[in-house]
């Protein structure tokens, strides 16, 4: 049961306040002001006075009883402090700072025993400090501003480090399809010239019927190339030898270079015999022209594939950064996870296997997609680094009550129990000197817990480390 009011006389409350170490040096007039502007509350044992994350409306002072400050860390409640001395305070302790207009309680206050509390509204507490202790307020305000600016600068540095890592990875990913596209374009130019030269020699010896049959054979060969099954190296080598012998018998020059093109297109000796019988004495040039046409088709397909890969990377980066979206919107967590995995493609190719276990039926959540992508980046990057380039990265999504759960697991050496309690602390890192700032998981925690009212949990043992991010489905996140 909670009682609110002024059950004690004004003089009695004034005496209680004077006995608190917090107010022991106040004048009679100042104590009178407190009595006039404050109220008292009585809470039974085990009651919550206010909750972490709620708007900080009051400054509380313990008159008698016992209370605890509890902070939620890693999905569990951690007791930060227990107090029974009259004068212990909590609540809107930073209300006097002008830059902190939209404050929240940083912890939960609950009673251990029946407790009586004196409380002031946050704005009255701020007025009290600024009026009675102006110099102290200026000093504390400056100290807080300096700490805030330092935190902002360090946070920006962490983002720049992450951006540099992502940029290097993206450049690596873009380089492969871009280089393949350039090589294919250069080869395509050469093959087009070869095809024109062969066609000039071939055309005078083809009548309309033969030309039509050759075009039909080319269409058939193109279809084979698109639907052919991959041969083993041994099978491909045997078929190349077989076709080379047929090509040499038909008078085709450089048969050793033509045979691999036909085999890679999925063609066999039966198709080659039809070409030779159809074109007669023009078979050597006809075969070369058909092989050149197949090469051109393959090169065009390679250019199309490379260009598609580049477009996919650009689209993933655009989706990752969410440059064209509002801050909070309905988002599918799978989109952000996939965009992040595309950016980390270069690291996954080094020996890390990727396993996805997605529940695609999950609803969209109200979130800031760009900030969540920063969370996925920090957690996935840590998981890959922990495995040293070899292992399995598993990403699993599911529903846990009214939350979407994203589990990112690795098969690395694990996190020691004494370290697990500290991984979300600012500047704490298990990486070597110069390899980590110790801010990635701290930033991730603040994004998930403070910005999105969710939670982060970690479970770890050698070979199985799991970090679970819980994000509310229905509760809208607020700026």
CATH class annotation of the largest domain:
Alpha Beta
Helix content: 40-55%
The main sheet orders its strands as 1-2-9-4-7
User: What is the CATH architecture term of the largest domain?
Assistant: 2-Layer Sandwich
Quote the average pLDDT. Answer: 77
Alpha-beta content class: alpha+beta
The secondary-structure element order is: EHHEEEEEEEEHHHHHHHEHHEEHEEHHEE
Q: What is the strand content?
A: 15-25%
CATH superfamily of the largest domain: Histidine kinase-like ATPase, C-terminal domain
Total of domains = 3
Q: Main β-sheet: number of strands, strand sense, barrel status?
A: 5 strands, antiparallel
Q: How would you summarize the topology of this molecule?
A:
Layout lengths: L1 E4 L4 H10 L8 H10 L1 E5 L4 E3 L7 E7 L2 E7 L2 E8 L5 E3 L16 E4 L3 E7 H11 L1 H69 L5 H20 L5 H17 L5 H10 L4 H11 L3 H39 L7 E3 L1 H11 L1 H4 L3 E6 L7 E3 L1 H18 L4 E10 L2 E8 L6 H4 L19 H12 L3 E7 L2 E9 L7
Parallel strand pairs: 11-13
Antiparallel strand pairs: 1-2, 2-9, 3-8, 4-7, 4-9, 5-6, 5-8, 10-12, 13-14, 14-16, 15-16
Helix pairs in contact: 1-2, 3-4, 4-9, 5-8, 5-9, 6-7, 8-9, 9-10, 10-12, 12-14
Tell me what the structure shows.
The protein is α+β, with helices and mostly antiparallel strands and 479 residues long. It has helices at residues 10-19, 28-37, 122-132, 134-202, 208-227, 233-249, 255-264, 269-279, 283-321, 333-343, 345-348, 369-386, 417-420, 440-451; strands at 2-5, 39-43, 48-50, 58-64, 67-73, 76-83, 89-91, 108-111, 115-121, 329-331, 352-357, 365-367, 391-400, 403-410, 455-461, 464-472. The chain folds into three domains: 2-132, Jelly Rolls (Sandwich), CATH 2.60.120.10; 168-311, no CATH class; 322-472, 2-Layer Sandwich (Heat Shock Protein 90), CATH 3.30.565. It contains 14 helices and 16 strands. The strands form four sheets. It has a five-stranded antiparallel β-sheet. It has a five-stranded mixed β-sheet with strand order 11-13-14-16-15, covered by helices on one side. A four-stranded antiparallel β-sheet has the order 3-8-5-6, with no helix packed on it. Strand 5 and strand 6 form a beta hairpin. Helix 8 crosses helix 9. It is rod-shaped.
């Amino acid at each position: 049961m909670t009682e609110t009011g002024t059950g004690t006389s004004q003089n009695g409350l004034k005496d209680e306040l004077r006995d608190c170490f917090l107010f022991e040096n106040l004048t009679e007039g100042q104590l009178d002001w407190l009595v006039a502007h404050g109220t008292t509350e009585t809470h039974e044992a085990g009651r919550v006075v206010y909750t972490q994350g709620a708007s900080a409306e009051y400054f509380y002072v313990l008159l008698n009883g016992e209370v605890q400050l509890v902070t939620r860390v890693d999905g569990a409640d951690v007791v930060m402090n227990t107090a029974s001395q009259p004068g212990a305070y909590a609540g809107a302790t930073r209300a006097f700072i002008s830059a902190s207009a939209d404050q929240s309680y940083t912890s939960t206050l609950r009673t251990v025993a029946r407790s009586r509390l004196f409380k002031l509204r946050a704005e009255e507490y701020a007025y009290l400090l600024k009026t009675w202790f102006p110099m102290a307020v200026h000093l504390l305000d400056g100290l807080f501003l300096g700490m805030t600016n330092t935190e902002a600068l360090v946070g920006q540095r962490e983002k720049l480090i992450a951006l540099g890592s992502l940029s290097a990875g993206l450049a690596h990913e873009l380089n492969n399809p871009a280089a393949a596209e350039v090589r294919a374009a250069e080869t395509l130019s050469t093959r087009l010239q070869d095809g024109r030269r062969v066609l000039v020699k071939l055309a005078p010896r083809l009548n309309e019927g033969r030309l039509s049959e050759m075009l039909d054979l080319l269409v058939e060969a193109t279809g084979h190339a698109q639907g052919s099954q991959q041969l083993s190296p041994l099978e491909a080598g045997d078929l190349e030898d077989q076709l080379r012998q047929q090509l040499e018998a038909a008078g085709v020059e450089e048969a050793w270079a033509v045979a691999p093109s036909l085999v890679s297109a999925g063609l066999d000796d039966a198709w080659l015999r039809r070409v030779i019988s159809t074109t007669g004495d023009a078979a050597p040039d006809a075969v070369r022209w058909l092989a050149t046409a197949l090469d051109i088709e393959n090169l065009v397909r390679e250019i199309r594939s490379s260009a598609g890969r580049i477009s996919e990377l650009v689209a993933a980066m655009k989706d990752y950064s969410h440059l064209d979206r509002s801050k909070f919107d309905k988002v599918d967590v799978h989109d952000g996870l996939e965009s992040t995995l595309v950016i980390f493609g270069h690291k996954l190719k080094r020996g890390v296997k990727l396993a996805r276990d997605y529940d695609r039926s999950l609803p969209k959540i109200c979130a800031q997609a760009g900030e969540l992508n920063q969370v996925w980046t920090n957690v996935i990057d840590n998981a890959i680094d922990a495995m040293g380039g070899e292992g399995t990265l598993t990403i699993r999504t599911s529903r846990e009550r009214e939350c979407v759960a994203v589990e990112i697991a690795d098969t690395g050496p694990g996190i020691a129990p004494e370290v697990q309690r500290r991984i979300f602390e600012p500047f704490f890192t298990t990486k070597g000197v110069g390899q980590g700032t110790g801010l990635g998981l701290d930033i991730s925690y603040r994004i998930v817990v403070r910005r999105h009212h969710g939670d982060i949990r970690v479970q770890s043992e050698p070979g199985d480390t799991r970090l679970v991010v819980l994000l509310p489905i229905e509760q809208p996140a607020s700026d």
